[in-house]
Every structure is written in C-alpha cells, then in structure tokens.
Design brief:
4 copies of one chain form a homotetramer. The first copy, chain A, is 47% helix and 16% strand. The two termini of chain A are 44 Å apart. Chain A folds into 3 domains: 1-133 and 202-261, 2-Layer Sandwich (Gyrase A, domain 2), CATH 3.30.1360; 137-200; 263-301, no CATH class. The longest helix of chain A has 26 residues, at 157-182. The first copy, chain A, contains 13 helices and 9 strands. In chain A, strands 2-3-4-8-5 form a 5-stranded antiparallel β-sheet. A two-stranded antiparallel sheet of chain A has the order 6-7. In chain A, a hairpin with a 7-residue loop joins strand 6 and strand 7 (151-154). Chain B binds chain D through residues 65, 67-68, 71, 77, 80-81, 84, 86, 148-149, 222, 255-257, 259-269, 272-273, 275-276, 278, 289, 291-292, 295, 299-301, and chain D through 65, 67-68, 71, 77, 80-81, 84, 86, 148-149, 222, 255-257, 259-269, 272-273, 275-276, 278, 289, 291-292, 295, 299-301. Strand 1 of chain C pairs antiparallel with strand 1 of chain D. Chains A, B, C, D: Belongs to the thymidylate synthase ThyX family. Chains A, B, C, D: This is Flavin-dependent thymidylate synthase. Chains A, B, C, D: It holds the Pfam family Thy1.
Chain lengths: 301, 301, 301, 301
Amino acid sequence: MPLSPEHQAEIDELRARPQSTLRSTAAGMEGHLYTAYPVLDHGFVRVIDYMGDDAAICQAARVSYGRGTKSVSNDEGLIRYLMRHWHSTPFEMCEIKLHVKLPVFVARQWIRHRTANVNEYSARYSILDREFYIPAPEHVAAQSTVNNQGRGELLEGGEAARVLEILKADSARAYDNYEAMISQDGQQGLARELARMNLPANIYTQWYWKVDLHNLFHFLRLRADAHAQYEIRVYAEEICKLVADWVPFAYKAFEDYRMGGATLSATALDCIRRMVKGEEVTQETSGMSKGEWREFMQVVG
Amino acid sequence: MPLSPEHQAEIDELRARPQSTLRSTAAGMEGHLYTAYPVLDHGFVRVIDYMGDDAAICQAARVSYGRGTKSVSNDEGLIRYLMRHWHSTPFEMCEIKLHVKLPVFVARQWIRHRTANVNEYSARYSILDREFYIPAPEHVAAQSTVNNQGRGELLEGGEAARVLEILKADSARAYDNYEAMISQDGQQGLARELARMNLPANIYTQWYWKVDLHNLFHFLRLRADAHAQYEIRVYAEEICKLVADWVPFAYKAFEDYRMGGATLSATALDCIRRMVKGEEVTQETSGMSKGEWREFMQVVG
Amino acid sequence: MPLSPEHQAEIDELRARPQSTLRSTAAGMEGHLYTAYPVLDHGFVRVIDYMGDDAAICQAARVSYGRGTKSVSNDEGLIRYLMRHWHSTPFEMCEIKLHVKLPVFVARQWIRHRTANVNEYSARYSILDREFYIPAPEHVAAQSTVNNQGRGELLEGGEAARVLEILKADSARAYDNYEAMISQDGQQGLARELARMNLPANIYTQWYWKVDLHNLFHFLRLRADAHAQYEIRVYAEEICKLVADWVPFAYKAFEDYRMGGATLSATALDCIRRMVKGEEVTQETSGMSKGEWREFMQVVG
Amino acid sequence: MPLSPEHQAEIDELRARPQSTLRSTAAGMEGHLYTAYPVLDHGFVRVIDYMGDDAAICQAARVSYGRGTKSVSNDEGLIRYLMRHWHSTPFEMCEIKLHVKLPVFVARQWIRHRTANVNEYSARYSILDREFYIPAPEHVAAQSTVNNQGRGELLEGGEAARVLEILKADSARAYDNYEAMISQDGQQGLARELARMNLPANIYTQWYWKVDLHNLFHFLRLRADAHAQYEIRVYAEEICKLVADWVPFAYKAFEDYRMGGATLSATALDCIRRMVKGEEVTQETSGMSKGEWREFMQVVG
C-alpha cells in the first residue's frame, strides 16, 4: 500500500479546503491534485501544484509572435503549429510539481534529466523505510538476445521463482543489517550516511520533482517509449494521464507529433519519395545499414 | 503611460473572476496579480502567475531532510537555516511568471540570467510600438571617474539638455524611418526582420519571464544591488516588493543573508579576528591590495 | 575588413607557436584555429579552442554502454547509431570556443540558446566601434506575403536604394551623436552605460561563445535551416564548415539525421503507409490541415 | 587496486604520444593527464582533457570589459578581481573532463550538480564489476549527536568490527546473487536492467564528467568543505590538487575568497562593526539565534 493513513489524512484535509485564486486554473488538474496514484508495488505519483494551462501556452506565444499569431484562428490550431515547428518556449510557461515515490534504480535514470528541480529524501539525515520493489512475476524477464539494453522473454517458472526469492531475501537481510547498524540500543549506532550504503537499488526513495511542460514532454517521449525500461515507463505513463487532463490540446499535439511520430533521415526520406513513386526499394538499394533498414521498415512497413 | 486602455480592461476582467482552487495560494500575491506596476517612463512589471509560498519551501525541505528538520521548530527558522547554509533546492520549488516591458538595452543585460524561461515579443513577426526610454533629467549622469562601469556626477544643465535632445530626436527619426521602410503604401515594404535593425537600444520590448525563487534571488542580489545600472535596478526593486509580499519569510532571510550580507575572504576574516582582539590593522598590514582594503573598509568601517 | 592589423598580428603570432600536448587533437581543426572567417560585411567567426574529436565521442559512449557497444564495429557506425537514437550525452563530451563578431540584432537571437557560456563585449565598460551591418543589395527583401516571419521577393531598385540610404544615414548619425555624448572634450561626458542606448541594432558587438557539440548541433539545426533569418544563417553555415572538419563522422550523421531529415507526425506516417501501398491520399483524406499538408508535400512530394 | 593492467597500458600508451597543437596548453595539467589518482579503496580520478588556463580566463574577461580591464595590471590581479566581484562568466571559459570511479552512494550526491555533462557506465547494457567500498576502520563513525546529517565519534572496536563484517558479507552475497541471476549457464539469465537492483549502494560505478571551471568551483566549495561527507570530500580534495596545478591563479583566488572565506549576514556584519569599536557583544545582544551565534563565533572567534 503506497500511502500511510497519516498521508491519506493529510491529502483528505488538503482536498477539503478549496481556496479562492485569481490565477488561471485547469479544471482537469484540480480533480487530480494531491491524489497519490499507485505505481509499481509501493510507489506513487501525485500532483502537488501546477502553473498554467493550454490558454497560458497560447498567451505566451501571442506575446512573442504578436499579430503574427492572429492568422491561426483557435488555441488548438496554434498549439499544434507551435509543436510542429519546435517553438518550445511557450510550453516552458507551464510548470508542474510532482511528489514521486520510486525505487532508487529508477531514480538514478530519472535524475539524468537535468532541467528540473528536485528535493529528494536524504538518507544522510533520515532513516529509510523498509520498502523494496519486488517485480511481479509477469515482469521477470530474461536479457534480450537482440538488444543489449532490453529484456526479452519471460523467465520460465522455476528460474523466475528463484529470482524473486533472491530479491526478497537479500532486501530483507540488507534492511535488517541496516537497522542493526544504526541502532542505538546498547551501542553507539553507525552514522546514517554510512549505513545507507548497505541498501540495494530496489529500495524506495521519494522526491519532489518540478519541471516545465517542454522538458516534461521530452522526459515523457523518452520514458513512455516502448523501449524504455518497464519500471520507469509505468511512471511516465501515469504522468501522461495527468498531463492529458491538465493541457488537453498540448497533450494531443504531443501524442501526434512526438510519441506517435518519427524522425526520418535524409536517406530515409529519399527512399520514401522513391517508394511513393512506385519504385521497389530494398535494403541493398536504400543506402541504409541493415539496422537502419529494420527500424525504417517498422516505421513505414 | 505604460498601459493601453485595452490592456487595462483585460486586467480588470481577469481580476473580477476569482476561481476556486485546491492549490496553495499566497494572499499577499493574489492582491498583486495582473496589476502592471510602472517602471521607468513606459515600462512595467506585472505578475501573471505564481506557484508556492513560504510553506511550500518548508514542505520541500521536509521531504529532503525528513525527521532532520523536526528540530527547527517553525517555518521562519527553517527558512533562515536553509538560506544560511546555501540549501538552495527548496527555494527552487517556488516559481513566478512575470510580464515585463523594458528597454532593449536592459533586456540585453537581463537575458544573461540563463536559468529562466522567456517569451519575448518578436520584431521578426510583429511591428514594435513607438515607445522609447528617455531618462529623467535627474538620471543623466557622467561617466564615473573611479569606476569603469558606472556613472558619476549628474551632467550639468546645458549638457544634460543636449543629451536628452539627441536621444529624443534620434529615437523619433529612427522610428519614422522604420515605419517608412516597412510601409506597404505605394511600395512593397521592407521585411520586418530587416527593418528592426534601424531601431536603437532604448526602444521598449516586452516579454514573459518565468523563473524559480532561487534563481530570482540570484538575479535580485545582482540587479537590486547599488552597483547595478539604475535602469535595471528599478525593475529589480519593483520585483523585490512583490516577492516580499509573496514569500515574506524567505524574502526577509534573503535581505539579511544576501542583500545586506557580504562575502569575506580568508584574508579579510583574519583581519577581523585581529581587529576584534584590539589590534590596529592597516592596509599595509592587512595583506590586501588597496582596492580590496577600500571595499573591506566599506563593509566593516 | 573584419580584422584590425593588431588582431591579425596576434593571430599570426599564436599560429606560429605550436605546443606539445598529450590531449587528443583534431588535425582538421588545428588548421582553422584562430583564423577569422569573414561573415557579413564586418563580422567573423574564429575558433579559439576545442576539446575532443570523433574518437572522444566514441570513448564516452563506450564508458556508458561498455560491452554493449562492441557489436558496432567502427567509430562511424557507432556515431550514426548514437545520433539516430538520440543518445545525446556522448556528443556533449566535445566542446568548442568561438570568437564571433556579429550585429546586435543577430546576437539577440543567438543568445536565446541558453546552454552555452558567453563573454560579450560590454558597452557599459568600453566604447563600441563605428561598425554597422548594411545589407548587400541582393539581401534587401520585402516582407513575405505568405509567412509572417520571413522575407519574400527582393525590393525593387528604387525602394532598395532608399532603404540602404536610410540605414547608412541613421547609423552614421546615431554613432556621431554617441561620440558627441560621451566626449570629454569641453564637457563631462555622458556615462557609457547610458550613451549606448542611442545605438541601433545593426551595430556590431563581439563575444566569446563556448558550447558543447550536442547543443551546437541543436543551434545549427535551427539556425542553418532555410527558414532561419539570412543574417544568422550565414554564421551557422560558416560554423558548419568548421565542425565538418573537426568531427567529420559526427557532422555527416548530423547532416543525414538532422539537417536533411524531418520529423513526421503519427498522422503523416499513416499517410505514408497508405501511399506506399498505392493509395491516392489527398489533403481532404489525410487528416491534416492545409498548412500541415503543404509542409508534408514538401517533404515527400 | 584501482587500475587494471589493460587500463594502465592504455594510459602509458596515451602518455607516450605527445601531439603538436596550436591551442593553449597548461604545463601543470599536462603532467597529470590520464594518470589515475587513487581515491578510497577502489576509486580514482583522472583528467581526460582540459580547455583553457589562467590566461584564457583573462582573455575572456578582456573581451567583456575591453579597455575597462586595462587598469588591472596583471593576470593574477584581474583574476582576483573577477572572483571577488562574482564575475563568473570568464571562469566558465575553462573546461575539464574527468574520468571518475566512485561508489554509487557518492555518485548519487555528485549528480545533483546539474550543470555538467555525464556519461555513466550503464548497468542496463553491461555487467558491473565485483568492487565495493568498505570503509577503513578509522572512518567507521557513529551518528553525530549534534548534527542530523553528520558523523560523530569513531565507533568502538567491537561495534566497528561488526559493521565492517556486515558490509563485507552483504556486498559479497549481493554480488554472488547478481551473478547467479544473470548467469546464462543452464538457464535463460535475468535481464541486466533487473538484476542490478540487487546491488547495494557501495558498489563502484564510473563516469566521464565534464564541467566548466565556474561550476567546478561551486562543486568544490560544497564538497571539499569540512561538513561534506568524507567519502565525497576525498574526491573533491583530489580534484583540488589537479585544479591548483591547472589554473594556479584562479585556484589561489578560489581558496582565499571561497574555501577560506565566509558569507556574513547583515546582522553579523553589524555585530562585527560593534565589536571592532570595542563593544562587548553577546548572543543575547547580537540579534542572532543560538545556532547562528555559534556559527558566527566559529568564524570570528
């Protein structure tokens, strides 16, 4: 269960006290505020605050382009135009602040997105809880044989069971020893900043993460992608749902131009022109390597 | 007059429609929202949106430091502690979006603060208005004789009058010619992206500027400083007033530790220790250069 | 003439003194070091320093992917793979430092690329030179009638001549008055930080600009693009030539995947799949707006 | 032993082949290039490349301030002036690229410095080595009783021995199980991206880390500070030695103004003025809290 009763009580209290504001509000987001949406076995994502909406993107674009934006008759058309032409700054005018609970190995990947603000729970100051990510059996997969960085088929029953047994036992023992080392019961107690080094990467941490919409879209494009590791992808997918309700026009444009789109090379575009004219193009006549051709076929095939 | 009637009508309308929100609100900031505070002869600063308040800073800090922050009994004490120990990330959890109208030569200095989001009015797309900054007579000062980058005494009457005459006449002529070049009356009309090059640096531009509180404090420390150029300082001072009402504890800590504080070198600290013990320290015995000693005397003298 | 004799002498001296180093060097770049390549009428671009080469990109990638990169047999293949899959961090491991002289209105566009280091000549401290950009007659174009932000046809003779006359006369007068205001001959002399506001946006400034290769490619993709304003595009094109000699594999991949490539939406990809199968697709049956369809036709037509 | 024989052979080969370059070189740094300086039990720091030197800082400053820098007669004086007045951009004109091997819990702290380029060894792609940080007995300390985030006294013999025993045993078991899970001997083998979650935070990782000198100084000020955790401080101290040889003037100014200096609040400066005049100031009459007064006494006492 991702939320403690105290936590839930705090959320209930916050949700019970609407304030009056002159700021623009996004109705679709107000309904999500503070609610902790479960991700993985102990994690969650919840929205703490947000700034702006679809209209705020257009408002900022109209400051930049002035009368130049008059020709685009409505907000959705303008947002699609901005997305299509990589006018990224108006999307930076929206901001979101999330509270995320996630395993450390996911956090390590996530933090590589540098253009964001972060406050992470510090295991130097405080004691981590006994919460570890243990994959569901349907996610315990073998190393991919075709892709160095991915997983392939599911492990067969016996092997999967052994893996889960190891992960559970090692997590439990590591935490028992963590507690034993910091205990001040009959001993001095090891410094927390040292004791934490015994904890494995599937322990949960949490942070506040604040990011603008342009950089959030960049994060989502990489992490909600089918090639992303499952354990970070589920966070990205949960955030996608929130963003779809927050800025519906922008999210729809993002889906069409980024998530569902593809960047094609000059060579690939040349092949397309030939194919559209009826020419039969093969890998040999394409000018692409085998790997590129395989990826190209997945896009146009 | 910085605001057009249309602009004022838009502000009045926005201020007339409070929304209900579950987000945290800052009462001191709600009172300022949208109002255009005049700066210089045609400029202004107005708050378009904000995220967070003093409590949000503490909330983020408590995620990081967990039980470690329990010892600090109240929000103001915690904020002062964070500021004093350069724990900057909790301040990044607040965000503000401003609409600013400002002369181009001020904008050029301002934009050097890179950690911010900007949408500027584009003179490629749109036509700039005929608005130029002409200094008030009490700001028409001579080049400083002691400081390469500052101004010194006021220009005497006749010289000041000549300067103002030049600035007004050159601005007017530049704009007349700008209009003449882009006019499509009986001619094709020069492209705006080319015509704009004739406009001097005292013409007004405008932008949306969005920044987190940590980076805003950095901006304010440099630009509200007595050594900053007057024309950017007045913007910074206006923003200071808004921030003081938005996050009163954080602003007070900023005033004490940053604006009113000073960074002293190891050499300077050594001198202070000797002086406190009663030793007479002079520039010669201080280990400082003449310039450093003069600055040091201004701090401790 | 972009270079003063003193400047040229300094370059000649620097080029006459090769040093011994253990760092990796790029032969193609050593030949360009310090040379000021002219751009526009008074501008230039010259390389002051660089870090890394094609091999450095691969070296960094191999730290990340370890044995995972063994399957790609050579450096060029690896670099193409990295570029195709948006693995941007290895490209950040190369860095370049340029000295650029450019008109202020170009500098204002350029500086919007925030992930770079800049030292610009300061007109608060120092006096600007009498150098203004005056377009060549073949670049004096009318406002585009189809594109709010671009130029269209060339101005006809008489109109172009009038434009050039205005730009020259206004530049000369503005500079005369700038000099008159700061002169300390028989008067106090206006502070430089004030006098600079009289100078138009076609005056030249200069800066040192340091950027990593990933962010430089992003800059070049936008600014060497056919839709970029001519006056910044010529700088980008000059830099492209330098980069092609510095990191030839990376530059070639950039040309294929970025400059010559295109990002297509999900809707566009669907149309391509239908067209490849022989279906006749029109704007009406495409699901695209007229504007999108026109752009799509330019890519695949 | 931090370096494998293959690694050492690669370094020896690189050091045996000096190249000719026209770039500026720093003699003090050339002597360090590639050499892996050991840190902790298995870690190291080594310089892969660098850009610029003390002269490059001054060169960039002179572009900015033009004739304004003439009054400062020499490079060292100019660098001290820049450091004292927070003119940070000239320091950004130097860049360094390091190869660092470090425990994961140190890497997690380090990566919070966002303005840097990083390529980290990926445990999704590749298999981590069996190398764990085990503290030396003289660093096995208890939780501080006065500071929530630090360590206090050394653990007594028996307790320290138990801690080391736990860390060694848990590391070994975790790695045995990691190997067992990914093994493809008689089973499919768990995906690496999953198996890595079993590894504790004292396992070693490695990365290339590239940063400009301004941001490196910021890192060093925080991480070479006496309050930093010992395990990251030793890396910072090793880097300090390299920087001292690379840019000696800048490093000396950094030591005086940053490492050895202190930022005092307005309240503290007021106390100093009173104390210098001979007044007896106590915590009660200082206007400071007890915590602030204690820190103040450490600075001036």
